[in-house]
Write a structure and sequence with these properties.
183 residues, alpha/beta, nine-stranded mixed β-sheet, 28% strand, globular, binds adenosine-5'-triphosphate, kinase activity, Nucleoside-triphosphatase TCELL_0057, ATP binding, AAA+_ATPase, ATP-binding
Length: 183
């Protein structure tokens, strides 16, 4: 069976940091990666103003959500930029992008991303390709269709206690598993 890793854990524990390290390790070894990463933006006072979404392949990005967004589509105190962010998802996970990649990498499968109309269908199609996959999954994800597709995945729950060790060893372990050198 293809290797799928699900990284989960409490908000702010370091999931994106670990995900980026794994993506970096995959790329450094010559593997082509398709997918996207979402990351927070803070203002000069340190206040979190919102999140951006970045296509890993083309480096195209858009705001995913901001506190001051007028969007009626809200997740907590953030308004989601549905149209702009959806375009990045379509670029990152369209059929060509995923078929021509070695590994599918998505940070994250969470409530904001699920407000983007193309996200769930494109993610499900990508998962069904049977390629190695790295996913950051929101700890409260409840979507039954996605959960069913990832229920046999290897799962890592990141904590403040284990994150240093996992950042050190997991990128190398993932690479070996994807290359089939480790069971
Ligand atoms: N191993 C680590 N050691 C020290 N600081 C870390 C470590 N991992 C992450 N951080 C810091 O913790 C903060 C949150 O990290 P990150 O954005 O990766 O978390 P996250 O779990 O993806 O957050 P979110 O739930 O908001 O998506 C960042 O400032 C990051 O630099």
């Amino acid at each position: 069976m293809r290797y799928t890793l699900v990284i989960t854990g409490r908000p702010g524990v370091g999931k994106s940091t670990l995900f980026n390290k794994i993506v970096e390790a995959l790329r450094s070894s010559g593997l082509a990666v398709a997918g996207f990463v979402t990351f927070e933006e803070r203002d000069s006072t340190g206040l979190r103003v919102g999140f951006k979404i970045l296509d890993l392949k083309t480096r195209s990005w858009a705001w995913l959500a901001r506190r001051d967004s007028p969007s009626p589509v809200r997740v907590g105190s953030y308004g989601v930029f549905v149209e702009e962010a959806n375009k990045v998802v379509e670029m990152a996970l369209n059929k060509d992008a995923v078929v021509n990649s070695d590994v599918i990498c998505v940070d994250e499968v969470g409530p904001m991303e699920l407000k983007l109309p193309s996200f769930k269908p494109l993610l499900i199609s990508a998962l069904k390709l049977g390629k190695p996959t790295i996913l950051v999954v929101h700890y409260r994800l409840s979507d039954p269709d996605i959960l069913r597709l990832i229920d046999k995945s290897e799962r890592v729950t990141l904590t403040l206690e284990n994150r240093d060790e996992l950042n050190r060893v997991l990128p190398g372990v993932v690479l070996e598993k994807i290359r089939g050198k480790r069971p």
